[in-house]
Specification:
The protein is mainly α and 444 residues long. The chain has one domain (11-423). It is built from 18 helices and two strands. A two-stranded antiparallel sheet has the order 1-2.
């Protein structure tokens, strides 16, 4: 029996997953070249795959220090993977098609729609152009400000390179740095902290939200999507700042030795960076256990749909919170800002949360078998990988071969998205509509 398979037999979710896998494999090959390392010695394939996945998934977890292990070529490869992974494989593919003068097919538009988390197919190419333009403007602005700041510490060429690298890494919520200790040298630096956190937040709220805010409309005239993203993001940042400030106030290894103003700045950074960014201005491994656990919760929620970040997304968390609120009030309709959510949205939100929890719990349990480390550290590592955050308490470099494979798979799932992965595995191209008789069960 002859089996004929082609890309036409694949669903958009499957095509998207394979697209990211293809980019990761290209990045792996480039990072194994001798020219990619500072000493000219080839990086082993597993570590190259780990780094390429971390960069493409805009995670930031590393097994080798980016600043010292990789050459300029290797760092540029990593930066390119970050940009591709942050904007989305289909956005970058569309940019290439624009440059070559090629037309975008309907099938390609469907994949772009899924990659950018858009509701409608109409106007999708216009959205891609907007995404590319906004990204360039924001990253260029951030790079220029950082360049001016770094000029006081380093030569012009190096300051420019460092500004560009960290601006792209921050906006794409990647967390890769070339200082060697993330941003711990800038704990109380207002300029660096403000620029990096602003880039992280802008990259994490999504391009559609940026467009609505830029249009200058009042909050009451925003779409429900924008209202929910801004509300949840603001609440999480404010809550995170307060909690970090209280929990770490007297910790001598983090905030304890800082002046009051620096404590506030560092607490604010601690609240923003778990939104899938991965930078740190105080040692993550020195945080109190309570702070680490709270950070895990922030990492799990992550950024917003259509953004450069990962996690289950702010809107998913907001929808689930609305469900709990409605049930507590005895209401059948799930309402947010005087709008009613459809059942499909609730089903998707619950599915994403359950799939994400199952993935994180499974990976954490597996890591407790393969690794010799504290449970909380391994739990933190698993959630950081899934949320494409990149923060680590220090166990990444000591992971076993199996541990690295587990984290690679988790980073990939986190970037592509748990629902997309589930659809890629289980979705049928030709659906059969069968409806069975209804019967209730007792729950709770």
């Amino acid at each position: 029996m002859k089996i004929n398979l082609s890309t036409r037999d694949l669903t958009p979710a499957q095509m998207l997953s394979l697209g990211y896998l293809f980019i990761i494999l290209i990045g792996t090959f480039l990072l194994t070249l001798p020219i990619a390392t500072a000493d000219g010695v080839r990086m082993n394939a597993l570590d190259a795959l780990f780094t390429a996945t971390s960069a493409t998934a805009v995670t930031g977890l590393i097994v080798e220090t980016t600043s010292t292990y990789f050459s300029t070529f290797g760092q540029v490869v990593i930066l390119s993977l970050i940009q591709i992974g942050g904007l989305g494989i289909m956005t970058m593919s569309t940019l290439v098609a624009f440059l070559l003068g090629k037309k975008i097919t309907l099938r390609e538009r469907l994949i772009i729609q899924q990659d950018l988390d858009q509701f409608e197919l109409s106007g999708i190419i216009r959205i891609v152009r907007y995404v590319i333009g906004v990204t360039f403007v924001i990253e260029a602005t951030g790079a220029f400000i950082l360049f001016l700041r770094f000029l006081s510490d380093m030569p012009v060429g190096r300051a420019f390179y460092y500004g560009v690298f960290h601006s792209i890494s921050a906006f794409n919520n990647a967390g890769f740095d070339i200082f060697g200790n993330s941003l711990e040298n800038f704990t109380g630096d207002i300029v660096v902290n403000f620029v990096i956190t602003t880039l992280i937040i802008l990259g994490g709220i999504g391009f559609a939200v940026i467009a609505e805010v830029y249009a200058g409309r009042s909050f009451k005239n925003f779409s429900l999507q924008t209202k929910l993203v801004l509300s949840v993001t603001g609440i999480l940042i404010l809550l995170g700042t307060i909690v970090a400030f209280i929990l770490e106030y007297s910790n001598p290894a983090t905030l304890g030795e800082l002046a009051f103003g620096e404590k506030v700045i560092a607490s604010y950074f601690l609240a923003v960076t778990p939104r899938t960014a991965g930078f740190n201005t105080v040692p993550t491994g020195a945080l109190n256990s309570s702070t680490i656990f709270f950070t895990i919760m922030l990492m799990f929620i992550g950024a917003s749909p259509g953004s450069t970040g990962g996690g289950v997304k702010t809107t998913t968390f907001g929808a689930l919170a609305a469900v709990l609120y409605a049930k507590a009030r005895g209401r059948d309709d799930i309402e947010i800002y005087n709008r009613r959510l459809g059942k499909e949205v609730i089903y998707n939100a619950l599915s994403i949360i359950l799939i994400a929890l199952l993935l994180v719990v499974t990976v954490t349990m597996a890591l407790t078998i393969t690794e010799q480390a504290e449970f909380l550290d391994l739990f933190f590592e698993a959630v950081s990988a899934f949320g494409t955050v990149g923060l680590s308490t220090g166990v990444t470099g000591s992971l076993s071969t199996m541990g690295r494979v587990l984290i690679i798979m988790t980073m990939f799932a986190g970037r592509v998205g748990p629902l997309t992965i589930a659809l890629a595995i289980g979705e049928q191209k030709d659906k059969v509509n069968v409806r069975y008789p209804k019967e209730n069960i007792l729950v709770g």
